[in-house]
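Escalated from tier 1: iron/sulfur cluster holo job.
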Amino acid sequence: MGKSKIEWCDRTWNPITGCPGPLVSPGCVNCYARRTAETRLRGRCGYDATDPFKITFHPDRLKEPAGWRKPQRIFVGSMGDVFHKDALYRDIDLVLSVAALTPRHTYMFLTKRPDLLWNLNQWVNNVLALSSYKSTSEIMGSDLYRKWLDDMLG
Ligand code: SF4
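Tier 2 regenerated the structure:
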């Protein structure tokens, strides 16, 4: 995977791609990853020709971070949602294992389904969980917000 033009990261890394519907947020309507997979990448670079945005594990990409010698800020999952319900725990576990084995890097997982990572993140120190929301009401309606509130209130 090449260097990224996104200013808050050095690299993007996509060992798991895709994010089939239903949409989980109003922000999904203009999903860049979906549009790119269904047009420019359809049938290329590991994206299926018939269903390019289905959850797809790319085991050949697992070794990429080990080859980046200098510490990198890595955006994981720019081409889908690693924590989609169709992604296998086994594959997610492999991705997190790569993060644990390359502690010089910082891994930033951007997901609209952060609940699973919220739990797993407790044992991977160099992983940041990021979630984007379109509005305050969307945040307040999320499971993660309710969990956080429960924790705060004891
Ligand atoms: S959750 Fe993310 S990857 Fe999935 S459709 Fe929405 S914006 Fe796109």
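The chain has a mean pLDDT of 87.
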